[in-house]
Amino acid sequence: MTELRVGVVGGTRLPGNVRTFLENVRRLLTDAGHDLNCDLLIREGCGEDVDGYTPVDPGLSETERAIGTLRTLTQVVTTYANEQEPDLLWQVTKFPLHGCATTIAGRRTGTPVLTRFAGDNFNEFRFSEGVSAVKAFALNNLFGRVPVHGSERVIVLGPHGRSEIKRRNDDIPVTEIPQPVDREKFSPVPAERERELARELGFPDEERIFLTVGRLTERKGMRTLVETAEELYGCGEPFRWYVIGDGPMRPELAATHGVEPLGRVDFVAMPDYYRAADLVVHPSLIEGLPNVLLEAAACGTPTVARNVGDSATAASASFEDDAELADLLTGEHDPATLGERFNPDRLREAYADALVETAGKK
């Protein structure tokens, strides 16, 4: 049995998907045969309820500018590593900024660094214009070079992530490990129960039910959703398209034929929404490997996603062009299969090996 102390860099706040990732991974690693003590470096009040982690606030504070965040985070992670002497540092969110800070801190203190590349950060600048595009490029593509060249190992979620890292540093060890799904929470139910859930949620019986989950912005594909819904409505297709999430496009979605924005929904209720839907649609313009697709597949619900990042590896069907989506939504699809790649035993071994092998670089 290997005993490890892991400094997990959370930063000033944890996005919901990262919180879910951390809890699912910790649950997996409970039976990995290693004694893992995980500190979560997070601002006070932001991480006390993440199961399996000891929250540590080394003096983190919110700053408005990226360079200020980089400076502060580098300093506090360096101080933590010097004082607590963890076996490794693990960056889990905000790859360019947190990855850069964590890598610098690791180099300063002789602490191995495990980096997690979970999005499509190197291409984010393409969705901005003018000065915003320049800033996005500098943040992601310049700061992002530091963890790619300076950390001991990078975890990616799929083939696209591997390609993006290897294009920038072919020599760095890359481990392909998708995020785990809580199979107890997200699981299929009999067809009769699916119909009961649909009635309980107020879904109509006579219309096909589509479900989209995400922030209500153009980047998350909501313009595509609006245009596709109007196309289906114009063709006389019977459907109801429910959208879970919040954001600036909510009024426009509410004014679209057949679309009903539900706002935010308690995470505990999400499995029932997946089970009650006929099809989960993920039109986001930029992604890594969305939890939405994995959770829907685990519930036995078919999915359609834009072919970006590693989305197509976990979807029933994918599309490249917006014009393809309406036809896909009128077709029949089987649920995506979460096969050996997502097998909990394989994931447990892969995450444990990545942590132990990275710590061995010390």
If you had to describe this structure to a student in words, what would you say it looks like?
- GO terms for molecular function: glycosyltransferase activity.
- This is Glycosyltransferase.
- There is one protein chain.
- Helices cover 39% and strands 18% of the residues.
- It is of the alpha/beta class.
- A seven-stranded parallel sheet has the order 3-2-1-4-5-6-7, with helices on both faces.
- β9 (239-244), α9 and β10 form a beta-alpha-beta unit.
- The longest helix is centred in the first third of the chain and has 19 residues, at 66-84.
- The model has no long low-confidence stretch (mean pLDDT 94).
Summary tags:
18% strand, single chain, Glycosyltransferase, glycosyltransferase activity, Glycosyltransferase_grp1, 13 strands, 13 helices, six-stranded parallel sheet, Rossmann fold, 362 residues, alpha/beta
Tell me briefly what this model is.
GO terms for molecular function: glycosyltransferase activity. The chain is of the alpha/beta class and 362 residues long. The chain has 13 helices and 13 strands.
Secondary-structure blueprint of this entry?
Blueprint lengths: L2 E9 L4 H14 L5 E8 L11 E3 L9 H19 L3 E4 L3 H15 L3 E5 L12 H13 L2 H6 L2 E4 L2 H10 L5 E3 L14 H10 L7 E6 L8 H13 L4 E6 L5 H5 L4 E5 L6 H7 L2 E4 L8 H8 L4 E4 L10 E3 L5 H6 L13 H16 L3
Parallel strand pairs: 1-2, 1-4, 2-3, 4-5, 5-6, 6-7, 8-9, 8-11, 9-10, 11-12, 12-13
Query: What count of structural domains?
Result: 2
Structural class: alpha/beta
Q: What sort of overall outline do the alpha carbons produce when their principal axes are compared?
A: globular
Strand percentage lies at 15-25%
> What is the H-and-E element order?
EHEEHEHEHHEHEHEHEHEHEHEEHH
* CATH fold naming of the largest domain: Rossmann fold
Largest sheet: 7 strands, parallel
**Percent of residues in helical segments?**
25-40%
| CATH level-four homologous superfamily name of the largest domain | Glycogen Phosphorylase B
- In angstroms, what is the radius of gyration? 21 Å
Could you tell me the number of beta strands?
A: 13
CATH architect. name of the largest domain: 3-Layer(aba) Sandwich
The residue-averaged pLDDT reads: 94
- Identify the strand order in the major beta sheet: 3-2-1-4-5-6-7
CATH class of the largest domain: Alpha Beta
Ends distance:
18 Å
Number of helices: 13
Low-pLDDT parts are: none
GO molecular function, one term: glycosyltransferase activity
Protein name: Glycosyltransferase
Pfam families: Glyco_trans_1_4
Organism: Haloarcula salinisoli
